[in-house]
């Protein structure tokens, strides 16, 4: 499929990614494949998007603005799914085709197509993944509406867009490049990398540079500092953006950094006052307090889905029927833990160092009983003494809610039955 003429800015973005494809092209997905062979990882991923739907693997997936490898990865991750990748850049499409051929990904189709024109495929999708793309569009609202128009009712969308405060140093360096007329070509980028290595200590870009090994590579430097089109969304701007796009917020892909109950935010004197705010207002305040968020990664649904958004709730007794599934990349540390603590639970994908979960001996028993099969009622029944039922249920409710907010578990809430 070939694209018809695009607005100037899209043509400029296309040319940019043809020359500097991002992420860096890779030709080996062996390690990725072996990770996703684990059924538990796939179930945890599925129920993060659809807690109340029964598990299945044959969904239709659109990877919009798929770059060099993301669509191939989804094709590999979900062999029974039909995966479609689209990207404006010929280089990205070619790289994805190469991976498709190498790994015989017969469930993957790839098109050189603009997000804004996705409806021309005449298809609709259970899941849409669009990460690192909408903030590069001349009209992100139009892009999001186009995606919404091909999302099935009950479907889920994974979006990632830039966040402003953690990118302050990037925007300063972008402005630096604009003022002195630095352009995206190999020589200028090499010189720019030289300048970055001489940045003074304390520069707002310093921490991003040290956290992102990616900055050693030319395409990453070009993507961050010389992109022709780049905007960022604060939490309130993001909520406006998704509402205008006919969508509704589901959850953050990693929610602990936004939670009032996790990490250092839980301990500040204003925490109780913040708890009286609505959740979006809490998220907005926490983004300002943390100050380092460079992107927002979230799950959204159509705002007209008959079943409503897929919600996890501890308000009534439904939580007792939830089956907790451990999230991938979580670890339980038992050595050198703080006094009075049995273990510390960590999600290794968190970049905020303060977000970890200390647990006591009884909580550790509940944690150890999580096998991805038993529901919470069953876990409580087997683990806690039945003589103090109300106390046990209160403890369990608090504990599983904390586990969920700390990104230790997702819930399969598709089998609501009796409770205890
Ligand atoms: C930063 S990369 C992100 C790639 C991938 N989504 C990921 O997260 O690894 C942005 C990609 O979006 C593509 N892109 C930018 N504007 C687009 C548009 N209007 N339609 C389709 N793709 C677009 C670029 O060609 C590039 O491959």
Secondary structure layout plus pairing:
Elements: H1 8-19, H2 30-36, H3 39-49, E1 60-64, H4 70-77, E2 82-87, H5 90-102, E3 108-112, E4 125-131, H6 140-149, E5 151-162, H7 168-180, H8 186-197, H9 206-211, H10 218-225, H11 235-244, E6 247-252, H12 271-274, H13 279-290, E7 295-302, E8 323-326, E9 330-333, E10 343-347, E11 357-359, H14 361-368, H15 376-383, H16 389-405, E12 409-412
Helix pairs in contact: 4-5
The chain binds S-adenosylmethionine.
Could you provide a short overview of the structure?
The chain is an alpha/beta fold. It has 16 helices and twelve strands.
Characteristic key phrases:
3 domains, 420 residues, 7-stranded mixed beta sheet, Rossmann fold, binds S-adenosylmethionine, alpha/beta, 16% strand, 12 strands, 16 helices, 3-stranded antiparallel beta sheet, 38% helix
């Amino acid at each position: 499929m070939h694209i018809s003429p695009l607005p100037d800015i899209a043509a400029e973005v296309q040319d940019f990614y043809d020359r500097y494809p991002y992420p860096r092209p890779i030709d080996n997905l062996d390690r990725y494949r072996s990770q996703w062979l684990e059924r538990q990882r796939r179930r945890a991923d599925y129920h993060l998007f659809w807690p109340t739907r029964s598990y299945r693997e044959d969904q239709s997936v659109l990877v919009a603005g798929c770059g060099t490898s993301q669509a191939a990865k989804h094709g590999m991750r979900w062999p029974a799914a039909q995966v479609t990748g689209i990207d404006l850049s010929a280089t990205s499409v070619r790289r994805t085709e190469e991976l498709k051929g190498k790994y015989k990904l017969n469930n993957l189709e790839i098109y050189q197509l603009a997000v804004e024109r996705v409806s021309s495929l005449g298809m609709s999708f259970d899941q849409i993944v669009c990460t690192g793309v909408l903030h590069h569009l001349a009209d992100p609202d139009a892009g999001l509406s186009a995606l919404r128009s091909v999302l099935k009712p009950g479907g889920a969308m994974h979006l990632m867009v830039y966040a402003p405060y953690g990118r302050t140093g990037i925007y300063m360096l972008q402005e630096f490049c604009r003022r002195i007329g630095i352009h995206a070509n190999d020589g200028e980028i090499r010189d720019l990398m030289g300048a970055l290595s001489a940045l003074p200590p304390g520069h707002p870009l310093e921490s991003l540079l040290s956290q992102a090994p990616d900055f050693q590579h030319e395409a990453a430097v070009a993507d961050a500092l010389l992109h022709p089109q780049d905007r960022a969304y604060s939490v309130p701007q993001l909520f406006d953006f998704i509402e205008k796009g006919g969508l509704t917020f589901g959850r953050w892909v990693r929610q602990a950094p936004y939670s009032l109950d996790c990490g250092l935010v839980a301990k500040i004197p204003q925490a109780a006052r913040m708890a009286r705010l609505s959740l979006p207002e809490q998220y907005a305040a926490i983004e300002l307090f943390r100050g380092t968020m460079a992107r927002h990664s979230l799950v959204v649904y159509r705002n007209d889905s008959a079943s409503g958004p897929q919600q996890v709730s501890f308000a009534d007794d439904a939580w007792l029927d939830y089956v907790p599934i451990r999230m991938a990349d979580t670890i339980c540390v038992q050595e050198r833990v703080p006094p009075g603590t049995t273990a510390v639970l960590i999600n290794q994908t968190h970049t905020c160092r303060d977000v970890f979960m200390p647990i006591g001996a009884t909580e550790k028993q509940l944690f150890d009983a999580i096998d991805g099969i038993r529901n919470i009622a069953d876990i409580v029944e087997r683990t806690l003494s039945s003589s103090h039922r109300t106390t046990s249920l209160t403890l369990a409710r608090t504990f599983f809610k904390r586990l969920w907010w700390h990104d230790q578990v997702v819930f399969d809430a598709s089998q609501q039955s009796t409770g205890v």
